[in-house]
Amino acid sequence: MWPVTDAAIETSGLTKLFGHQRAVDALDLSVPRGSVFGFLGPNGSGKTTTIRMLLGLAAASSGGIRMLGEPMPTAIASVLPRVGALVEGPAIYPFLSGRANLLRLDAADRHASSRTRRARIDAALERVGLSHAADKKAHAYSLGMKQRLGIANALLRPRELLILDEPSNGLDPQGTREVRALIRSLADDGTTVFVSSHLLSEIEQLCSHVAVMSAGRLVAQGTLDELRRGEQRIEVRTPDAAAARRVLQQLRLVVDAGSESGTVSATLVDGVLPEHVTAALVAAGVRVRGLALAGAGDQGNWLEERFVALTGEGFDVAG
Amino acid sequence: MSRDEPGSRPLALLGSELGTLFRRRRTIAMLAALALVPILIAVAVRVTSAGDAGRGPAFIGDITQNGLFVAFTALTVSIPLFLPLMVGVVAGDTIAGEANLGTLRYLLIAPAGRLRLLLIKYAAAGIFAIAAVLVIVLVGIAIGAALFPIGPVALLSGDTIGAGEFALRALLLVGYVSLSLLGLTAIGLFISTLTTVPVGAMAATIVLAAASQIADALPQLSAVHPWLFTHLWLGFADLLRNPIGWDSYGQNALLQLGYIVVFGALAAGRFTTKDILS
Ligand SMILES: Nc1ncnc2c1ncn2[C@@H]1O[C@H](COP(=O)(O)OP(=O)(O)OP(=O)(O)O)[C@@H](O)[C@H]1O
Ligand SMILES: [Mg+2]
């Protein structure tokens, strides 16, 4: 039933219904081991709901999950100790100090060693820059300090997989940079990192792979390069604009409506390379006077453009 | 695959739970309030010397003769309202409190294990109930000894017992009243799995304890009386006779066990299948 792949996370047809709403709809996710995987999508598109199902917090309405090679939630007891996670922001005991918060959550992991507990907690606090505030009551923490505490919790033990839901939320620029550096160093050590974020520039800097959600459905998935190539545009200069337009449409390309006379431009799709376009144009007798490729990937904010193209311009969240 | 690290202690979470519970200001305040009950009684009796055997709570008339009765009096007056109130707060908070803070999701992905977490939560709430009863009895004995003469205790059956025997009876009483509260604790645990609003779970638990006692007082409902978890709450008089009557102890144990099993199973059924969305 499951393809034999070396995926850290693999879902098939994963679906979650809230009443009649399909918060997550037939999701086929494949997160390769060792990747830094960006999980994108507008507000309410189902990212956190997906993460809850991955971690066994919520049951899937249908579909299956494999994490670190084992079925979830069946193998929850052996999988979760190898996974560190931040879900929908940090949660704290306000009446405990930052350190006591971590002591409690580490004690909840029955397999974690009590002997090394304090040392591991100190190391995690150090990693997120909270050492000096460790003994302050957590209700006195700022938003970013709570966020750092949440990340420290995910790092209490060496993990094979980190699932981070908007880790940079509320962090100052230094904190954001630190988190980026942290994720890179963890990835260098071989940890798979699954990170959801709205900071597209951060995703672009960090991630090897991305998936994009929209209203519960997966609308794109692949390496960052694949996504970038997906946004490559082709521009044909020709006196036979109408014929060129027809040819491009036959190749299933989306031709820009507002092309100026004398040029026809379109967005390339997967599997249609520039040489295919040239050959087709020539075969149809279109006089090609110039052919230019504009990778949207060359633009500074290509990921944002691509994201909006995939998920729509609308500002209103999907109900 | 088991990934026990050397030095892992499976009971560490229970220790953490107890530490968190008993270091909380709310818990300390509740125990302090319970400690005030025997103090208030002892001071009131001492100041007014009004140990009128005809009126007032059971045992209060005996206090001026023997300070040890402060503990019994305080326990008797705390059983209908004060103790269920405190137990309701702690039991109602068990799961709903964590859900409300959002820490429940982090405990579960640690992973604590849902059933294990539920058992630990119940154990800690039960230990709180025992501690609450102990506080009343110990403070009662202390303040009674401080303000009144103490000596051999006259039992309800007329015999008198010495200090050692009294300690045993007091311990049996603590056991009886704690046991009485364990059924309510299980009810509170179950209600706590139903909501993410701890105050709601606390209130519902306390209301049930009150409703059960009201039902127990209505003769029209006598058919259900033996099944009410509060029915034997005050039935510990047999422990203060010679020889000790174990009947009500056994019945109460059975009754409470029934509630623990039923509501424990309901709580487990609910909590192990529940979506944690907070
Ligand atoms: N407990 C719940 N009950 C009902 N519907 C819910 C619940 N939690 C989430 N939803 C719905 O599921 C959909 C997906 O929500 P989700 O939290 O997964 O979005 P998200 O992608 O994480 O958004 P964001 O970027 O804002 O964090 C939303 O439409 C939301 O209203
Ligand atoms: Mg979210």
Question: What can you see in these coordinates?
Answer:
The complex is a heterodimer of chains A (319) and B (278). Chain A folds into 2 domains: 7-226, P-loop containing nucleotide triphosphate hydrolases (Rossmann fold), CATH 3.40.50.300; 231-295, Alpha-Beta Plaits (2-Layer Sandwich). Helices cover 33% and strands 26% of the residues of chain A. Chain A contains 11 helices and 15 strands. In chain A, the strands form 3 sheets. Chain A has a 6-stranded mixed beta sheet, with helices on both faces. Chain B has helices spanning 12-23, 25-48, 69-78, 82-101, 103-109, 114-147, 163-192, 198-217, 247-273; strands at 153-154, 160-161. In chain B, strand 1 (153-154) and strand 2 form a beta hairpin. In chain B, helix 2 (25-48) runs antiparallel to helix 4, helix 2 runs parallel beside helix 6 and helix 4 packs across helix 7. The radius of gyration of chain B is 20 Å and the shape is globular. The two termini of chain B are 30 Å apart. Adenosine-5'-triphosphate is lined by residues 18, 23, 41, 43-49 of chain A.
